[in-house]
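Could you please review the protein record set out just below?
***
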Amino acid sequence: MKDAPPAALPANLVDPPWLRKPAAPKTAAGHPVVPGLEPPGDRRVVWEPGEREQWAAMRPYGGPWADGDWEREAEKVRDGSMYLPSQAGFLASAPEPLARPLLAAWEPPLVTWNFDHSLKPIVARFEEAAWDVSVRMAKANPFGTGPVLLPFLGADVARLMADWLYRLKSVQELARAWFARHGLGAVPYLVPDALGKRVGPRRNAVHALRLIEGDVAAAARVHGDEAAQAVAALLADGPAQAEPAHKRPKPPDLPPWLDTGALPRPVLRDTGLRLPPDAARNLVHLWAMAPRPDAFPGAAEAAEETAALCEPASLTAFAWALFEAWRAAGTPGRSAFVLPALGRFGDDDTVRRLTPLIKEWPGQAGHDRAAAGLDALAAIGTDLALLHLDGIARSGRYKGLQRQAQVKLREVAARKGLGDEELADRLVPSLGLDASGAMALDYGPRRFTVGFDEQLRPYVTGEDGKRRKTLPKPGAKDDPALAPAAYTAFTALKKDVRAVASLQIARLETAMVEGRTWTPDEFAAFFVRHPLMWHIARRLVWTSGGIPFRLAEDRTPADVADDAFALSSDVRIAHPLPLGDALPAWAEVFADYEITQPFPQLARPVFTLAAGAGRDGRLARFEGLTVPYGKILGLTRTGWVRGPALDGGLQRWISRPAGPYHVVIGLDPGIAAGYVDLHPEQKLEHVWIAPAPREYDPAFPIENGFAAVDPVLLSEILADLTRLG
């Protein structure tokens, strides 16, 4: 394959700006210069309303000092033996006749931490007397100490702020706040530099003058008419100076492990020609800069310009090869562009290959890497990508990663204006199935049809009607093009369904327990017409308006007598408890049609409390049981949550939400966090209902006790407790 000529490529790939030699800074030649100007020599402290009082009220470090301690402690300030923040606290607190001369002689060592909090009470107390020490410490530590200079207006501070404004990105907000506060009042202090010959101070001052709002030329008139006219001409001439240094950061070097020449280079859409090696390397450079738009403005747009010209599949292959090279190098740091590139250009096959790695990385000290992988899945954003993200959010092995996946899903749901479960309904992919819920696989002389059992396990049926668990490999008599493609499609389908099946079945079982509802239109879209979920939906009993129904083979609702049934209101999955006397008849229908259910529904055990039981908020018949710790841990599969680790690292209870309340099981001795089999047996001390998970406390009774819990949910809780015994 030939390489594309430079004329066919975007300029940023042929002559990228980060490789261009920067223009030499302009000198004062040709610009207005007024020699001999000097800035005003005054110093002023300009307070905003209430600011001085606020600074003065800041609690100083150190002390408190008693009357007899002042002179003794002052000596520690003089010889520097007192802790530095305590020195500042002493100067803010000591009697003024003692503190003022101490401040005049104070030469604290330079610090690298945030010291403005320690200096602000001193500035509020002594104002101009604290000027020199404040400026000296701020120069050495702009971000940590610089904020203390906000009220100061003088030549040295104006020059310092102009330098920071141009040169330091870390204090941009501070420098802009200073110029916004002092405005035209800062102009007289900047004009001598702006009209002088020294390039650096001139550049800084002019850049700052252009930031100030108002009649800057009039404010410059304190230096004479000539200076005012020169400033007016300077400002009217536009931004002749170079951009601020902080806007021209050095682009990141590409990592040494990366050999772009070994990657499959992207291909242009229109011509089918490849990017030349240098252009491919420059593209990776753009990808490295794109995640930092503040530092590298325009890089993301330039990367998108190139992406629009290239074949999407070739960009996907390029991004995946880049990712594999990174993995082969041991996933080194300072490669933050690799996973975002997968997120931008990945496809469903990328999702299938990336998700297992994301799940493994936290166990390999790669939690941050796994979190970036979640970002990539969210960025890919296909139904399959979001489905895998949902799977990690629901059943991730590592709780930290699981929580981050949940946050990502909530962000996606918020963008779409949906709740978590509403989004989950929309995430289920069709996986290439046709409207009937099947997939035709053509081998040429042989054809197969894909079907699904009650656990969504795919199988194939040949033209002879024989069911097979797997698809036969292509043979010599099969079409050499059709058969391998069909075999590959079925292999991918099995992988995708494996990720979908258990998640969706568990989700619907939870929906049955929690009584979730769907409108008739939602029910039709997400279950009746959905090619995959239909295979689950037809194996369940549903209710609408309290009347149970099932989906017949033609996908229409039918009642227990197989008569047509019209949906009158919201639809929910029937729990066997409310079915009551109708339950045997429905069990007979499903037996007659040989319908196997995806989870226990009609055969599900149901439980109720005896009259009056549990009204005191306790389930005494379960208290005192001793059970293996594994059974306690098994409760987490049905929504129970282990409590926090208390004294000795023991989790003393496990709880489950029950409407607005929580059912709590007190454990003795408790589960040892991180060493769950330390105590092989656990005694159920108390089983009670509480407003929140906590140790048993009879001072917080729930009115009517367990009678306040929804009967279906109570049945499920009693089933869990019964299985413990």
Summary: The radius of gyration is 36 Å. The first strand starts at residue 44 and ends at 45. The CA atoms of residues 78 and 102 lie 7 Å apart. Residues 22-29 have pLDDT under 50 and may be disordered.
